[in-house]
UniProtKB/TrEMBL annotation:
PROSITE patterns assigned to the protein according to its UniProt record, in alphabetical order: YJEF_C_2, YJEF_C_3, YJEF_N
NCBIfam families (alphabetical): yjeF_cterm, yjeF_nterm
Organism: Jannaschia pohangensis
Catalytic activity of the protein: (6R)-NADHX = (6S)-NADHX; (6S)-NADHX + ADP = AMP + phosphate + NADH + H(+); (6S)-NADPHX + ADP = AMP + phosphate + NADPH + H(+); (6R)-NADPHX = (6S)-NADPHX
Family designation: In the N-terminal section; belongs to the NnrE/AIBP family. Belongs to the NnrE/AIBP family.
Protein name per Swiss-Prot or TrEMBL: Bifunctional NAD(P)H-hydrate repair enzyme
Length: 531
């Protein structure tokens, strides 16, 4: 499956390109969507394929409604008892939807959507939400929302989007943004940005129906400008991150320096250091103030330890140019001393990860971004993001009243452009962006949900993984996005009950699996005859 996440406009452009090429008509695409949706439903619930039941199909005034009429016809053809309801006026349906409306009318009735709640008394086995998809332009009318909500205890399948949810942002349009939660969302052609981030109910699942448009992308290099593309993060087995040269020396894999807080506050930095080492940094040093040296010494083995008491000591340490990546923030506290350390770290021109307290210190400055440069990575959670970028956070938090709505991807892109460096905005939907608009989402939702990652210290581990990758020479945007993926995979490798200490220890299993995927890939490519 492609790891592109499209906007609604990009999806329309792809569909239009396919139609303009003459290879397919809009009507054929709608047929593929409807037939594919029924296949996807039966794949999800095989018992439905085995025994036809009762279905309610709720259709809207656009092409999403057209898909609904196709689904109704296909289900009826398989022996289902289908009731169809329409929101709006059949006379005003767009042409392809109108054709499918008429085809359905040869098989059954179409009643106004307001009558749909009565159908619940006939106990439908399946409800299809085909009211709005990518064309949602404004909030749902309250009565429409109430009607849809009546079905929320049933098996509801939403075509393309849960109606009311904006596919560019994953946000529910409206003042209160009340969501309606289907059991399954069937995305047509590609996952959209809104399937990976925003308010989408994490318990539902998204599956993709292939509309066979990949040739439209493959055949047109540069179909979308690079800065407009959003990817779902997917670390490939073949990434150079995961191998070390046979003849390499530890210094060939970089030296990461992690600054700790004072006595009793060194745990966060030690977690980050352990993660940096596990991800393959050749050397990792924790630098601690004098009062915290004993505490660190009692805890650290493979991670080295140096003392620093002030910004001058850090500057002296950085005369060693083998130290090529720094991490500041975890457990450091918010003080003038930390601010001075920040200045030294940023002035050194080294790769720097700024997390936690370092972000808060930065946010307190009159000009937070003046010293940042392209080798920096900022890793804010929601609170830190709002302190650093208050106007952007306010825009993201304000109710979304029209589509396409401002998304977490837009917000992270704007933040990265302002900061002039890579920004990783944490959460169940972690978004990574660079100053040129490159963006990716690492979504911990649906089959990748990992709520046990919301545990104290897991963000420190993430900062450590990024620092380790930077020290190994991975560029900032790729280090941040790969780290987000690895962090989540480590959570899966450990499973429930996870605490932050487990994450670095779970990384070897993730790397082993990637290495075996790589071996499998190489076996396939070397045995494939060249053409
Ligand atoms: N293109 C293709 O070839 C293919 C497309 N496919 C399918 O088409 C879907 C996109 O279709 P679409 O563009 O017609 O948009 P859709 O979501 O049906 O709604 C638009 C209508 O709703 C109206 N409306 C909007 N918000 C409203 C509100 N709150 N309350 C009331 N009305 C509201 C809006 O009115 P307007 O904003 O213009 O006033 C307009 O009339 C896509 O998701 C996929 O399912 C697949 O079949 C594959 C092939
Ligand atoms: N519900 C969730 N599902 C998946 N990941 C989550 C969830 N909540 C938080 N995370 C991830 O857990 C980490 C928490 O980091 P952070 O908020 O900085 O916590 P801490 O400072 O305690 O380490 C981030 O990587 C974030 O993306
Ligand atoms: K829908």
């Amino acid at each position: 499956m492609s790891n592109l996440l499209l906007t609604a406009a990009q999806m329309r452009a792809l569909e239009q390109a396919a139609i303009d090429s003459g290879r397919v008509t809009g009507l054929e695409l709608m047929e593929r969507a409807g037939v594919g949706a029924v296949d996807a439903i039966f794949a999800e619930w095989p018992e439905m394929a085995a025994a036809p039941g009762r279905a309610v199909v709720l259709c809207g005034p656009g092409n999403n409604g057209g898909d609904g009429f196709v689904v109704a016809r296909v289900l009826a053809g398989k022996g289902w008892d289908v009731e169809v309801f329409l929101y709006g006026d059949a006379e005003r349906l767009p042409p392809d939807a109108r054709v499918n409306y008429e085809r359905w009318c040869e098989l059954g009735k179409v009643l106004p959507l307001g009558d749909a709640p009565d159908a619940i008394e006939r106990f439908p086995d399946l409800t299809i939400d085909a009211v709005f998809g990518s064309g949602l332009s404004r909030p749902l009318e309250a009565s429409l929302f109430r009607t849809l909500s009546c079905f929320s205890q049933q098996f509801v399948v939403s075509l393309d989007a849960p109606s009311g949810c904006d596919l560019d942002s994953g946000r529910v349009l409206g003042e209160d943004g009340q969501a309606f939660h289907p059991a399954l969302v069937i995305a047509f052609g590609h996952r959209k940005v809104g399937h990976a981030c925003g308010d989408l109910e994490r318990a539902s699942k998204v599956v993709v129906v292939d509309l066979q448009l990949s040739r439209e992308i493959a055949g047109r290099a540069g179909f979308f400008a690079e800065r407009e593309i959003v990817h779902a993060v997917q670390v490939r087995a073949l990434s150079p991150i995961f191998s070390k040269r046979n003849d390499g020396h530890k210094y060939d894999h970089g030296h990461a320096l992690i600054l700790t807080g004072g006595m009793g506050r060194t745990g966060a930095a030690r977690l980050a250091a352990r993660a940096a080492l596990r991800i393959g940094a050749g050397l990792v040093t924790c630098a601690a103030p004098g009062a915290a040296m004993m505490e660190c010494a009692a805890q650290l083995t493979a991670v080295m330890l140096r003392r620093y008491d002030n910004a001058e000591a850090l500057a002296a340490m950085l005369e060693d140019d083998r130290i090529n990546a720094l991490c500041l923030g975890p457990g450091m506290g918010v003080s003038a001393r930390v601010s001075a350390l920040l200045d030294v770290a940023l002035a050194s021109g080294r790769q720097v990860v700024l997390d936690a307290d370092a972000l808060t210190v930065l946010a307190g400055r009159d000009d937070p971004f003046s010293l940042l440069h392209s080798k920096c990575v900022l890793t804010p959670h929601g609170g830190e993001f709002a302190r650093l970028f208050p106007d952007i956070a306010a825009r993201l938090k304000a109710p979304a009243m029209s589509g396409p709505a401002y998304s977490k991807v837009d917000a992270t892109r704007d933040a990265a452009a302002r900061a002039g460096c890579t920004v990783l905005f944490k959460g169940p939907d972690t978004v990574i962006a660079d100053p040129n608009g490159k963006a990716a989402v690492n979504s911990a939702a649906y089959d990748r949900a990992a709520p046990w990652l919301a545990t104290a210290g897991s963000g420190d581990v993430l900062a450590g993984i990024i620092t380790g990758l930077l020290s190994r020479g991975v560029p900032p945007y790729h280090a941040a996005s790969s780290a987000a993926w690895l962090h989540l995979e480590a959570a899966f490798a450990f499973g429930p009950g996870l605490i932050a200490e487990d994450l670095p220890e779970a990384l070897p299993a993730v790397l082993r699996r990637l290495a075996s995927d790589q071996a499998a890939f190489e076996a396939v490519t070397t045995s494939r005859p060249s053409t």
